[in-house]
Design brief:
Belongs to the biotin--protein ligase family. Keywords: ATP-binding, Biotin, DNA-binding, Ligase, Nucleotide-binding, Repressor, Transcription, Transcription regulation. It comes from Tumebacillus lacus. The chain is of the alpha+beta class. The protein has 5 helices and 12 strands. It has 2 domains: about 190 residues, Bira Bifunctional Protein, Domain 2 (BirA Bifunctional Protein, domain 2), CATH 3.30.930; about 45 residues, SH3 type barrels (Roll). The strands form 2 sheets. The chain has a 7-stranded mixed sheet with strand order 1-2-3-7-6-5-4, sandwiched between helices. Helix 2 crosses helix 4 and helix 2 packs across helix 5. The longest helix has 23 residues. It starts with a strand and ends with a strand. The structure holds biotin. The site of biotin has 21 residues, from helix 1, strand 3, strand 6 and strand 7.
């Protein structure tokens, strides 16, 4: 992975660019990196704050042979790799909030946006977008992010070269991805995800498209789906949501 790198100083979104390249046949492992995004995208149509030279804004093209139903697992695999990389870079333990936010003590430092192209029920390609706040001085975050965002520099106390961050991410991601696609499947990653997670065992509100679901986050199943025990004792499967801690 990352054998071929496409670099742009400024771009709208590395995910959008990677989608175009993937549709034009770019091979698995192609990595798109930018210093700045003018229209960085987050999950659920949000935008992603991507100021120049302050973060790692990158997208990786993957072509796993996977049924569509398994594709969401790749995001969880990536979250494990990201938690490891960010822990190693800062010396401070990073935690995963389901499905794939990486936090240091309740503040988000990294987000993952996986976009899929499918043909029938098989994955054609995936674009794995990774955004990491690296050297963002806390006062530079916009007002609405002040209390919920942090950067590696904020955690470690000193700036970290972005090239080092990209290297650490690729070093952690490659072996986990190989283990996942070369037969291990999600079963081989699930325990690692659980060890790094900060969601299970807690009272949460899952904001889903169907409305909020309140209860205790019990576990993730073999697909990576979150299981929540509602107050009435019923267990709900959560496929996609924003999680708030109650
Ligand atoms: C989220 O937590 O909402 C996901 C954020 C993903 C941001 C990254 S930055 C690189 C890539 N390009 C984008 O436009 N978004 C992802």
């Amino acid at each position: 992975l990352g054998q071929s790198i496409v670099y742009h100083e400024t771009i709208d979104s590395t995910n959008t660019m990677a989608q175009k390249l993937a549709l034009n046949g770019a091979p698995e492992g192609t990595l798109v990196i930018a210093d700045e995004q003018t229209a960085g995208r987050g999950r659920r149509g949000r935008n992603w704050f991507s100021p120049p030279h302050s973060g790692v804004w990158m997208s990786l093209i993957l072509r796993p042979q996977l049924p569509v139903a398994h594709a969401a697992q790749i995001t969880l695999v990536t979250a494990v790799a990201m938690a490891r990389a960010l822990t190693r870079l800062t010396g401070v333990e990073a935690g995963i909030k389901w499905p794939n936010d990486i936090l240091f003590d309740k503040r988000k430092c990294c987000g993952i946006l996986t976009e899929m192209h499918a043909e029938f029920d098989q994955v054609h390609h995936l674009v794995l977008g990774i955004g990491i706040n690296v050297n963002v001085p806390q006062e530079q975050f916009p007002e609405e992010l002040q209390s919920i965002a942090t950067s590696l520099q904020g955690v470690k106390g000193v700036p970290i070269p972005r090239a080092e961050v990209v290297r650490a991410v690729m070093e952690e991601l490659e072996p986990l991805y190989r283990r996942y696609v070369d037969g291990g499947g999600f079963a081989s990653i699930r325990e690692d995800w659980k060890r790094s997670n900060i969601t299970l065992g807690r009272q949460i509100v899952a904001q889903t498209a169907r409305g909020p679901i309140t209860g205790e986050a019990l576990d993730i199943d073999e697909f990576g789906v979150l299981l929540v025990r509602r107050e009435d004792g019923e267990t709900e499967k959560i496929y996609s949501a924003d999680i708030l801690f109650a």
